[in-house]
Amino acid sequence: MILILDFGSQTTQLIARRIREQKVYCEIHPYSISVERIKELRPAGIVMSGGPCSVYDNDAPHSDPAVLALGIPILGICYGAQLMILQCGGRVERAEKREFGKAELQVLRTDGLFAGLETGEGVHHHQVWMSHGDRVEVVPDGFEATAVSAHSPFAALRHRDKPFVAVQFHPEVAHTLIGNDVLRNFIFGFCGCRPDWTMQSFIETTVAALREKVGTARVICALSGGVDSSVTAAMVHRAIGDQLTCIYVNNGLMRSGESEAILRFFKETSKLNVIDVDATDFFLDELHGVVDPELKRKKIGLGFIKIFEEEAGKIGNVSYLAQGTLYPDVIESVSFRGAAPIKSHHNVGGLPEIMKLDLIEPLRELFKDEVRLLGLELGLPEEAIYRQPFPGPGLGIRIMGEITRERLDILRQADVIVLDEMKKQGWYRQVWQSFAVLLPIQTVGVMGDGRTYEHVVAIRCVDSRDAMTADWSRLPYDLLGTMSTRIINEVRGVNRVVYDISSKPPSTIEWE
Ligand code: XMP
């Protein structure tokens, strides 16, 4: 295992991704982790991440210098490199010229971190990505430069006797063309890791751990039809079989046919215990007359908890709640960066406290793409695995204004057409999300010889990596044209279709 100490860099998660892509397991922990805890984790190597501070700032994050005495190989990246050098007795100073963006690295040694990178005779040059204002000025005893750049006399360093290496550039970003080689040299060359972390090995260790933790107790799981909860259910079921009961609450705000497909798979193909509650009437009653987006979200969230609790109560004797928390959420909750809440995203958060259940989170160490691989390995259908994200409040936040059965019906029909054309024309998997939104206005049109005064549907389609930022997808005009024609022709009550060309920020992906 490789331990990554997080000093607050935007790219700490990327370091983890790159290492796991090499089939080596790694975990991110805050820089303040105790030396005792590190010893328990028994990492084969430690990476000290970059960070936004200067090592001399008053509140700069400093890891315990005792980390350097553990005898474990350490790679310092950017801020991490500067801190390592400072803690070993060197000097870091504000550079006259900051380096941001692409830079040319001149490699002085073709071993260690740069082994196997020879491009020919003599000195080697490589493109790397820099982002720093401070730089190492004086190296402590035992250290020497292994690479330089125009503005960094110590763009890479190594210790002659100890397994310490450091780079001023960011090997984890794609613009550092030799980034993967550098990380590979560290984890395999210095740390002696083996590329044996696969989804199959993850399943085996998780099954064993779940069996030991749960014993003969009962576990419940909220199944939503989404990737995370589906994979969670499949994973827990693999470990404890019928001790798991899933509860699926149909809030009446699902897309056409979507949950039926998931339920069919879980109930019939994988033989899971699934309690399937149709609470459509309850939710639509609760939402009657509600137009405020936050109130909608609140009512849907609370309604879910109420129904879920009722059903769970009927099972009795339940000790655990299985939940599809992913690694980015875990990192977010331990990170020291805050973010202003824009929308109250509703998931099953809050349930464990209310129901006094212990949590089981079998995916909490995985990134989304790893969850997908795990799902495939567990035998889930590709359709479920590559399903686009769907918000907890469902179509409720894609109907502007009041939610009624009639308006739900219109939106469902339009949405099916959008998804159908996206799939047919090979765009569905290329975008982050694609869906229809029903607007609260009517506009004038002409059909045949008559005037119409009907609804407007907006198509929203975005590209994104993580939903934090997004841009509208540049779909071909013909595809947009086909969707528009089909929606207007096939969905009764719609006479106009518009395409949303806003990015996030300043807009958001969903309209409410
Ligand atoms: P926004 O609209 O905030 O959406 O840009 C970002 C991503 O989150 C999804 N989303 C939700 N997911 N519960 C969820 O589980 C919610 O309440 C919720 N609201 C938005 C949205 O679909 C997009 O992928």
UniProtKB/TrEMBL annotation:
Keyword Ligase found: yes
SUPFAM superfamilies from the UniProt entry: Adenine nucleotide alpha hydrolases-like, Class I glutamine amidotransferase-like, GMP synthetase C-terminal dimerisation domain
GO cellular component: cytosol
All copies of domain GMPS ATP-PPase, residue ranges: 197-387
Active-site positions on this chain: C78 (nucleophile), H170, E172
A molecular function (GO) term: GMP synthase activity
Keywords of this entry: ATP-binding, Glutamine amidotransferase, GMP biosynthesis, Ligase, Nucleotide-binding, Purine biosynthesis
Lineage: superkingdom: Bacteria
Catalysed transformations (reactions): XMP + L-glutamine + ATP + H2O = GMP + L-glutamate + AMP + diphosphate + 2 H(+)
Binding site for ATP: S224, G225, G226, V227, D228, S229, S230
One Pfam family this sequence matches: tRNA_Me_trans
Pathway the protein acts in: Purine metabolism; GMP biosynthesis; GMP from XMP (L-Gln route): step 1/1
EC numbers for this chain: 6.3.5.2
PANTHER family: GMP SYNTHASE [GLUTAMINE-HYDROLYZING], GMP SYNTHASE-RELATED
Subunit structure of this chain's protein: Homodimer.
Function noted in UniProt: Catalyzes the synthesis of GMP from XMP.
Name of the protein this chain belongs to: GMP synthase [glutamine-hydrolyzing]
Organism field: Desulfofustis glycolicus DSM 9705
